[in-house]
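Supplementary Data S3. Sequence and structure tokens for construct A.
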Amino acid sequence: MRGAQGGNRQSRRGAAKAGPRAEGPAGATTATGSGRKPRRRDRRGRGVRGHLAPVGVPVHRTRSEVFDDLVLDAVDELEEHWAGELAALEFAVEDVPPEPDAIVLDAGTVVDRGVPLGRLFREGLPEIPQPVVVVYRRPIEARATDPDDRADLVFMVVVDLAAEFLGRDVDEIG
């Protein structure tokens, strides 16, 4: 159907918006050639998109950061009474224990159902020349889902390995 001026008539759905066009990334065209990032929208009345909490607040802490704090709290509690004896001992956290073939199950390893939760390296590690207690995060998190239980389990593992290092009974240390 022809309009009054003799041009082709387009439906509203097929009509292109008027305005300058520019090439965007990968050959796509954008309505404006300014290269600005798309603005954040309040889709369907659910609020503007973004972070749930600012980066600096405790809600934004990762599980590994929280676990590191649990280990530090356990070490601080031990050092209140045994600071001199534990001065030569380093503490570290690893996500998972090494491969099952590389695990040495001796008195310096705390094991639950065949899975190490922590280990005492009396000779140290290649990057740390002094004795090191390594606490494995993922096995402990799998066994203690409640934060209080997790803190207790971390404390028990750290105390057990510190007692092994000092050559004392666990009840005497903790």
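Construct B, processed identically:
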Amino acid sequence: MGSGQGSVSTAEILAELSALAAAISAGTLASDARVIPLADVERAWAEAGSTRQRIVITP
């Protein structure tokens, strides 16, 4: 899948959703993400360029 709205059509996303959900449920889809609270958004921006992890900001 691409990144950002419009990189993949809605039809293409819908066609893959069930397989994606199954992979997530089975634990076969790996995601290297780090959750950072919104209160630490400055730290997230500072670290974004020096990590290969996907940073996820949460409320």
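The first helix runs from residue 10 to 26. The chain is about 40% helix and 15% strand.
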